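Give me the fold.
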Amino acid sequence: MAQAARRTPVLPDDTPSLDPSAIQRNYRRERARRRARVERQSATRRSNVRFWVTLLVLAFLTAFAILAAWHEVQTLFGV
């Protein structure tokens, strides 16, 4: 009867490497991931601030235009 072929064990990705330069590469990669995450968070905060400032400016301009139009209507009809 035939026997199943032996397989070489598959090492998981998180097993430590014996190569010292690989350790340094992993540290650099993790630091880069952390920096990218922090940069994404700060970019999100900045975009939120830009959105609310733009919304505030547009609301102010809209209120100004409505008041100016209301003043012109009152002047035109003598109210």
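The chain has a mean pLDDT of 89.
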